[in-house]
Write a structure and sequence with these properties.
Elements (H helix, E strand, L loop, with lengths): L1 H19 L1 H16 L11 E8 L13 E6 L2 E5 L5 H8 L8 E3 L5 H4 L2 H11 L6 E6 L2 H23 L11 E6 L6 E6 L2 E7 L9 E7 L2 E5 L7 H7 L4 E7 L1 H13 L3 H9 L7 H10 L4 E8 L8 H4 L3 H4 L3 E4 L4 E6 L6 E4 L2
Parallel strand pairs: 3-4, 4-5, 5-6, 10-11, 11-12, 12-13
Antiparallel strand pairs: 1-2, 1-14, 2-3, 7-8, 8-9, 9-10, 14-15
Helix pairs in contact: 7-10, 8-9
The structure holds zinc ion (2 copies).
Length: about 350
């Protein structure tokens, strides 16, 4: 009994000591954490191959677990960003990819959820790199207006940063972006090919958003197709044609229908109308599964997941019918997911970076 009492007193004493020392302990722990985290670059440890890092798997609907649409495609040493939704820059940093590494951005279309993180990506990239030319931003017709709009909005801040840190640290020539327009075409077109990487753009079906694009990436016999926002279209299946990974947007119409019905019951006609409009230009899980089967994709990864689900326990309901329509691997994309396709192999590896 006496022994138990002594142990209890000792434990209380240790706890009190730790509590009293929380300030210097905090300093110690923080210093270690800074050293451990400083200069993290997850791309440095990647094998030669084609990799996709999902840096945003959400939509315009607020979701604390999913940033706005954002995917990094890494091919050898080249790093491309596809769309820059809300929170993209912060998520990329949190995942451990230095923003200065991004060589170019590809926009699928100009819905706000796909571009509203572009300003922060451009600013963080400029601060994090010694680049002296702006970020190339590719996109459909109108990309020049988007880029010049961000440039106008950030012009004052360019000046503040240069005044504060000096032009040798933040050269004006490296700020912002330069637009490259992908002209309208019924056929897929190669927008660039460099060091073994070929990137093709193709038109998808997202009316009234016109044009809206998807992208295909090929590198050392590995391939990834990113659908962008689209209603189900055979073009995506055709572009995949045996691709290793199809990253496709998805919206569950039954679930969104329940939101619309509730809005209607509550007399909220605006939300009821919006919720009943959106399924028309997105793709249901079963329709995407059909596209993946038709395109013979080896793996299907869902992104741009609508609606928000507060728990993964709802995924089986969300994915109802998918397994009957497609027999390959189906992955519910999440922020921080890395999918790796080592060069000249048929392996597909997956890891979580968050
Ligand atoms: Zn979208
Ligand atoms: Zn859209």
């Amino acid at each position: 009994m006496r022994r138990v009492f002594l142990i209890a007193v000792l434990m209380v004493g240790i706890a009190a000591g730790l509590w009293m020392a929380r300030d210097p302990l905090g300093e110690f722990v923080y210093g270690r954490a800074v050293k451990a985290g400083y200069g993290t670059d997850v791309t440095a440890g990647l094998d030669d191959g084609l990799h996709v890092i999902l840096c945003g798997t959400g939509s315009p609907l607020p979701d604390p677990d999913r940033s706005g649409p954002c995917a990094l495609v890494i091919a050898g040493k080249q790093v491309l960003l596809v769309d820059a939704g809300s929170g993209a820059g912060r998520r990329i940093g949190q995942i451990g990819v230095p923003l200065g590494k991004i060589d170019a951005t590809l926009l699928t279309h100009f819905h706000s959820d796909h571009i509203d993180g572009l300003g922060e990506v451009l600013m963080l990239r400029w601060a994090a790199s010694r680049r002296t030319i702006p970020m190339p931003v590719y996109g459909p017709e109108g990309v020049d207006k988007v880029v010049s709009g961000f440039d106008t909005a950030y012009t004052a801040d360019y000046g503040y940063r240069i005044a504060h840190h000096g032009a040798d640290i933040m050269p004006r020539s490296g700020a912002g972006a330069r637009a490259f327009t992908i002209s309208r075409s019924a056929e897929a077109q190669t927008i660039f090919a460099k060091d073994g990487l070929k990137v093709q753009a193709f038109a998808v079906k997202h009316d009234p958003v016109e044009p809206a694009l998807g992208y295909r990436f090929d590198y050392k016999r590995r391939s990834v197709v990113i659908s962008g926002d689209t209603a189900p279209t055979a073009t995506v299946a055709r572009m995949c044609k045996g691709c290793d990974v199809l990253v496709h947007e998805v919206l569950n119409p039954q679930m969104v229908g329940k939101i619309a019905a509730t809005a209607k019951e509550r007399g909220d006609r605006r939300i009821a109308k919006i919720m009943s409009d959106i399924p028309g230009y997105h793709s249901s899980p079963v329709a995407v599964a059909g596209i993946a089967r038709q395109g013979n994709a080896k793996m299907l990864v869902f992104t741009h997941v609508v609606p928000r689900m507060p728990t993964r326990l709802l995924h089986p309901y969300f994915l109802r019918g998918v397994a009957d329509a497609y027999s390959g691997d189906v992955v519910m994309g999440e922020d921080g997911m890395l999918i790796s396709l080592p060069a000249r192999s048929d392996r597909i590896k997956r890891a979580e970076l968050l």
